[in-house]
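Re: [help] complex structure
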Amino acid sequence: MVARKLLGGLALAAALALSPAMADDTPFKAHEFTLANGMQVVVIPDHRAPVVTHQVWFKTGSADDPRDVGGIAHFFEHLMFRGTPKHPDGEFDEIVKMNGGVNNANTYFDRTVYYERVAKDRLPMMMELDADRMANLIIDDKVVTSERQVILEERNSRTDNEPSALFWEQMSAALFQASTYGSPVIGWRREIEGLTTEEARTFYNANYGPNNAILVVAGDVTVDEVKKLAEQYYGVLPARTLIPRIRPLEPPPRAARRVAMKDPKVGVPNFMRLYLAPSYTSDKNDEAYALEVLAYILSGAGDSSRLGLAIVKRDGIATSVGAFYDGGGIDDRMFGLYGSPAAGKTLADVEGALDTELAKFLAEGPTADELSRAKTVLVANAIYARDDQESMANYYGEGLTYGQSIAELEAWPDKIQAVTAEQVKAVANAYLRPERSVSGTLEPGEAPAATPAGGQP
Amino acid sequence: MKPLFRLAAAMAAVVALAAPATAFDIQEVKSPGGIEAWLVEEHGLPIISVQAGFDGGARLDPEAKTGLTYLVSTLMNEGAGDFDSTTFTQKLEEKAISFGGASDTDAFYLRLTTLSANKADAFELMRLAIANPRFDQEAIDRMKAQIFQAQKDADEDPNSIAGNAWSAGAFPNHPYGRRTIGTAETIGAITRDDIADFMKTHLGRDALKIVVVGDINAAELGPLLDTLFAPIPATRSAPDVAPITMQSGGTTQFIDRDIPQSIVVFGASGLDLKDPDFRPAQVMNYVLGGGGFSSRLMHEVRSVRGLTYGISTGLASYRFADILSGSVASDNAKIKESLDVTKAEVEKMRTTGITDDELKGAKAFLTGSYALRFDSNASIAGALLSIALDGFDKDYINRRNPEIEAVTKEQANAAAQRLLDPKSFYWVILGKPVGLQ
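Output below.
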């Protein structure tokens, strides 16, 4: 197995602490600084409403879960709500609600985020609560046992009850042959069943230090206010000794793979193809921006985009088709195509039509109009995104945890604007190749008989 | 019940509970032609949002053509004037304009978002879509095919099956009991004439509410309202439905489905938004199942027993019916225990009501979180349109928190007694539940 060590949180934080402009409070722009203990802080002022979004991002996610402890990052996210000596089990949520706030958390492959949205004068209280649980969490058998049951029910609700979610798990597992992106964020059922209190403690000590975290505050605040509060509440936490993020790298893909799944509970047959593609973090020469534009050209305007015009409107082979680029992550992520057959057509027809249109695109590239429309919409979306302080906080928090810089994140519209037709054609030819792909079909029908023990995912 | 010490500690940490005021002004704008809108000027971003809502929606669909409202909503950006579907879409893209229709049980919506620099093109395309929609047969057939697929997906989706079954049992022989996307038969029966008639009969300026938020002022908006909405008939002529009270109370319906986790949807009659008991019921519901982890149901069923990922209840108001509804999902082997605990908590709430601390907590959240609904142009526009369609004036946003503050424990407990009669609850259980049948 090829493995790569990523920069530790501290080194990364130091590398990113570039912006000294503390007095600058330009709205809708990100301002950053770093606390002495290594915690990164990002402030995005937006004074339109007396509301703030407070987020703590940890640079660990399911793709960092050790091989024998799959699901631990997500499992641990649940434990973070179960109490400290100062704020016993249940009180965290109670205090947030008593102050008119809403809160939650979520885990993804490369990061875990905890957040509250609250009236601006309650910000110090939210910092007190989040700083407390970063350092003083109670982890015992009682909470681990009860959360394990909750998480198994979560897996039932999100995945095991839904054939399309089970299909997605199989597609991802086939696409990523070595990368831990191939395992579901929540973990496989038998992994969740086996997670222990001791593993949770080890995980906490190895990951939940201020030097592995990014604080993002968006909304009706100034940089100086946040700096003062962040130093008071988070600045006093000791840094932890972090374990390096050891990440298996994908080997060069050599063979096209296929997944075929049937389930009587499928409503509409679906074809899907995933290609291994670089992410915004792992790409070279700004290929991610070209992939973003490529996805928009193929299906950003639905039936009136390249794929829909040909396969849905002109030929009537599919009811709907689409393309997407998922470039969010530290390592290579994916580019996808999908479609559902029109009445009287088959999944093979849809796959054939997608391949035909793809071959045409790979030979010709985009038209000037297609490229221009895609860039106009994508660049405008960056302005529309400013309307929502929580989306802004997510954009910066996520990008930074994936190793991008604020300068990079703010240059996104310029980089999109700079994409050329040649670049779009080049990334399509480089990455939309059979040997990089998994093609899958999900259709109604009898599933194979269940295997006896351990048959459940 | 939550241990009291925990609540007490949470209380101690609370600072002054002054609910933050909403930080914007609503202007009432009237066009020269008499069309009214609410305007919130916000020049901090170069964005304008126009949201129009027509009271009516899917409840006006003839039974044999259920899904008409939804189908038309999908066609609003599929071509207008000289521009066919593809050209119209490209015109929107060229100026990064977002425009389209939407619908729900009680309203039909038109929504536009544009950069203020492109407002002239945006308003012209919206005007064209309202005044002269094409409804080309090609687009109608394509949208129908996509709706047939959405129906097939919903036919197999466990949450949709359970939810639709509950509505059908609660509102038999009434539009509220039917799926707003219709069936293959009802969508199949809709003709182009039906669609063209929809614009003349289902929509009317007397049923229209408009909210505009963003980088535009009243002087510009006034005449624009006439330009955009004058083609709409002055009055809505489609006949309205009769009010209905929820049916099937006291019964349980089982749906067999081979899935590992059973899904339960339940509900009882609710209260009209203008009923004097509505605010007390809102407070009571927060304590019972509306308050997430602070609710009794989430605490007992999830936090204490680990029986579910989520359980919640909520008050929902259709224009002509009101419900208190809820849902929970648990492993087939555990769903019986989940329901036993749920029913015991509902009964306990009915008989013993809420505590003083719970009253305080519910009020603190319900009033304190209100400002969170108004923190972006899009959320302000959506929230205000919903208030307008519910028939309230613009001062509603200032009255709402004091109304909640005024609720007493006795009022909340009276609302519990009024709403939580076990005989009024209707349960739908889907899955392979163990020990229930």
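Chain A has 17 helices and 13 strands.
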